[in-house]
Write the structure tokens for this entry.
Amino acid sequence: MTTGQQKMDWARQYMPVLRSIREEFEREKPLAGVTIGMALHVEAKTAVLVETLAAGGAEVYITGCNPLSTQDDVAEALNQVKGVHCYAKRACSNEEYYAAINRVLDARPSITIDDGMDLIFEIHTRRQDVLDGVVGGCEETTTGIHRLRSMAAEGALKFPVIAVNDTPMKRHFDNVHGTGESSLSSIMVTTNCLLAGKHLVVAGYGFCGRGVARKARGLGAQVIVTEVDPRRALEAHMEGFVVMPMDEAAKVGEIFITTTGNTSILTERHFALMQSGAILSNAGHFNVEIDVKWLEEHADAIERRDGIDTYDIFGKQIHVLAEGRLVNLATPKGMGHPIEVMDLSFALQALSARYMVEHGKDLVPGVYDVPNAIDEEVAERKLAALGIAIDSLSEEQTHYMSAWNIGT
């Protein structure tokens, strides 16, 4: 058994929800004759999703969605799975990255599964030749969905896409617990630095940011939150975090984690204010939140440890993790979200892909929520796997909750 197969075998045992779906897919073959194109982080948990789709009868073509998140041994193992074609490679150049995207599109997929919208972007710009064959897609992450909603608002989106990220089972588990735990664990294993007692700055208090902030506080960090949304800022304040502008946080922060999905969160003016030894990391999808390009143009990088580039600038040293890319996946030992969390997220992906195969031709172009029945089904399957039973409403209770004329 290769190391990639060992990783996949390890992940499978902690993914009971996806296992139950795979067993169902193997019996029913709901994806028979379907070609699925994927751009996701190619590592062990993703591989279990890919196996599940292939077990359902799909021909799957996959590449990475981040140049540094692919695990080459897992990519190699995926190519041994019947019906799977993997083109991902770690540390690929920008040209190699998009060449792999185009190899996926050369297969003319009818269903796309994206993490960051790269496939959909290519289809709508440089690869419109495959557009007519696409029934629909699924998008995994917040950043991709923001862009898809912008496309839809402008009338530019040409097929239906399910916003897998924007559903309770994704936001409250993957974004909060997955991003929170995996980002901090990756920072700790990469730097070997203590979090307890340190001033840790979290940029953005969305679901990912609040997950990072809460778990960092649990580890003893003194957490500072920066925000642009007054409601989220107030929420962070009410939950006991210090809230301030980044211009102020930059002066006291020792560890920085960006989670906004936006660009230019940490820039030249912030670097000038930081303490020597400040550690900068990004937990948003694209590597635009930290202005690494400016640092590269104004200082020579010294690799202090694997996954850490140190810049001598303004008379001090600033450390950037994973080149400003996803810290939980792009560091040398980054393993991504915990397996149990991705079991839920990839169960949503598998069931949403089946839904799109069955209903996509009836949907007009646009961004769609995950059907509530799918979201509840994933929760029910997880509870069953845990052996947890819950109550159900009686007929009287159901009637009471739906009636308007009962009175007090």
Summary: Residues 177-330 form a domain with the Rossmann fold fold (CATH 3.40.50.720). The chain has two domains: 3-170+337-386, 177-330.
